[in-house]
Amino acid sequence: MKIVIPPPLTEPPQPQSFGQDFWLLLRNQLHVTWNKLRHWPFLAWLGVISAGIGLLSVLVYLGSVAYGALQVMPPEIGQGFLTLIFMIGIASQVFFGITAAFVTLYMSEDLELFFMSPVPLRVVFAVKSLMIANSNLLTALLFCFLPGLFYGLLFQASASYYLFVILVGCGFWIMGTAAAALLNLVVMRIVPPHRSREAVGVIGAVAGILVALLFQLPSMIMMQGQSLNLTDWLTGQEQLLKVMGYFPWGWGAKALGAGITGEFTNGLAWSLLLLLTAAALFWVAFILLERGFRRGWISLTQGAAPRRKKQHRDLHTGEFTPSTLQFTVTEHAAGVASPWAGMWAVAKKDLLYMKRDTREWFGYMVPLLLMMFFVAQYLFFQAEQTASSMVSVLVMYTLMFSGNMALQSFGREGEADWFLNSVPLAGWPVVWGKLLGAVIPTLVLMQALLVGTAVAIKVSASLTIMLAIGAFLLTLGASAIGLFYSINNSRFNPESPQQRISPGASMLMYLVNLIFMLILALGMVYLIPPAELITALKAMPPAPVGGGFLNSMGRFFFTISRPLLWQPLGRTMMGLLVTFGSWSLVFFGFMAATVRQSRKGLRVENVTGTKKKRRKLK
Amino acid sequence: MHETLIRTQHLTKRYGSTAVVDNLNLEVQSGEIFGFLGPNGSGKTTTIRMLSGLLDASEGEAYICGYNIAKEASQAKGLLAYVPDQPKIYGKLTATEFLRLVAALYRVPKEFAAERAAQLLSMFGLAERADELLEGYSHGMRQKVVLAAALIHQPRVILLDEPTVGLDPASARLLKNVLQELALQGAAVFLSTHILEIAERMCHRVGILQQGKLIAQGSPEELRQRVGHADESLEDIFLELTGGHETAELIRSLEEGDNQ
Lengths: 618, 260
Prior knowledge:
The complex is a heterodimer of chains A (618) and B (260).
Chain A: H1 18-38, H2 42-71, H3 75-106, H4 111-116, H5 121-154, H6 159-190, H7 196-224, H8 230-235, H9 238-244, H10 248-260, H11 264-294, H12 322-330, H13 339-356, H14 358-381, H15 384-407, H16 417-422, H17 428-456, H18 461-489, E1 490-492, H19 503-527, H20 531-538, H21 549-561, H22 568-600, E2 603-608, E3 611-616
Parallel strand pairs in A: 1-2
Antiparallel strand pairs in A: 2-3
Chain B: E1 4-15, E2 18-29, E3 33-37, H1 44-51, E4 59-64, E5 67-68, H2 73-78, E6 80-83, H3 95-105, H4 110-123, H5 139-151, E7 157-161, H6 169-184, E8 188-192, H7 196-202, E9 205-210, E10 213-218, H8 220-227, H9 234-241, H10 245-259
Parallel strand pairs in B: 3-8, 3-9, 6-7, 7-8
Antiparallel strand pairs in B: 1-2, 1-4, 4-5, 9-10
């Protein structure tokens, strides 16, 4: 084939203006974003819209509470209130901005391309900074622009006041973005490039927890009822608010306060001071960012792991010569090791993976946070009802959590699923290894939580032991169910490696686990029947006759409730049979099905954007 | 007349006290294909990244077509193309859109850009999938897109880091032909590779880097003369110079073991 290539350039291309380059990069960015949105799946849109509506509802509620509080506040107290809101606004922008900056700069797919092109670096970072600022816009609007706007409307401020609202809002917006970019520099320096996805996962998890706490605010405010009085609280914080006045959020509030009272020069001075400080901070962030990348202080690519400083154990002593290698390869080593070793190897691999991937820890932190919430509720309200509801929630959670953790097991293989399919361990060594890997951390955590909580709320010793045994059985059973759905429905998406299961399978697993728990609960009720239930059963009318769904259901519940009225020996035998029979059936049944599937070959669905590719080995 | 298009003077990159590239002095002329060899971790990629302006040198200077890459970055980069070993490109752009973006970044006039993008995609066998998003491309296909992008602005200097990784034999052959054609047209080609056969067949000169230091440079023939074994392959010379002869001996003894 004859290749015709135009001759190389002899002179460099003519430089373009800052504006031309900026517009070129910005247009490209908008184009990429547009393509991304166009290829979003419907479910993603649905999720975003639902979350948006939920968040908006919470914010509208909080906004109405804040507006109501402002109405009864004198302007000087209102100014203190604004100071607090602005401070929250800056903090939120920094927190969410760090994630945006991290993704925009450290995980960017285009920085290398731009760095080697003749486009000046300042243009590249100007566009990147605009993108970070854009992701902070909503936070800035909610916490920096809108409070000022409503404050002005409430006190019927003059038109010049709204100039200050714009100046102050822009100042906080720039400042929040700059602070986020600066802190992100530290994060990028600490986090090695190959762990950047992990870091974003962790930051995302923290953000998720904060948003979840935000959703709790309305109910907490409602529970506080009359005792929440912002005006009284702010009046009592005079000293604190005075100190706040020295910080930028105080300057913003002072500017708006001056705007309300018609002191134009005073307001303008504070607004400009804020804006100039923000601009200076932004400039520092911009310069440091550009230098950090250019001088290699921040790594540009997500390369391999750095060389470990830790001294490795020297496995080979003496000279490593061909003769020693020949000696080892002539030894017959294959096929003599126990499959138990293989099982433990699989479990150990999973445990090491969980230990070394920070994102995995957040899966285990959710029950801890949940428990902290319940324990705090118990400590504050000290209600008997709280204790029993806490134990039942904990049991329920053990079941769901165990199932969910096992559900992640096979998806953890990700793109390396070929490996477990290619080793001579298919069948029970792989499946039991996976079970062990999923169950060990879950059991340790849930046992510690259950027993710890039972002791903390002073539950009797016998009930504590029963809870411990119950948690053990529940964890194993739920994990077996989870493993079965995991081996059949795993998926891997390199962009979000923590989403390892299809949503449908996840729902189905929860449903099966729920039925499993109901059957176990029935067995437990046969073993330890509650006195109230026995009394109610004795007063029950006979089983309904006739057809129809409701009558059939009535007859079903009537029949399964009969053993409760049997003699204790028969009832206990029935309880043991139902509890251990159903547990054995579920546990061994699901394990056997998983082992069978493992022998056929485990599958991990490869998901990239909207495209799906099912890989089935063997 | 040959012109020096790549020149480094005491080029050094340090991370802390460790010199990853140490006092590198080399020159590559127009019309020359220069192979950059070295064991893993010897500093090849760091050198290429410094030459491409992606990384600042700790000491020393690098010149592309006479322009200092640190001080006259825009001019130098305008005449340069870099093909990284791991092609990181926008998953949410099509190949055509990506090539047009690169053309715009390098100030290629619009009327040429579209035509040239189509020609290059056709040359690399990507014309049929030119309007698909790049996220659906395989590693080899992405590599071809990056190669096409590197050629779109008629670079005078082209830096390639392991360019044949992921390419099928036909594409690898095409790449070799393209690079030879570029050299014939007067461009300087600087490529790092582990495939010594490619270096031996394609490169006019090679440089061998070890622990950041350039331990040898010259044509394969000159290197043979230097080690004193006229009949040895570049692989043998490389292993001898980089101290890999223990590994070579090991491989040989394993082969003997298999034959027995």
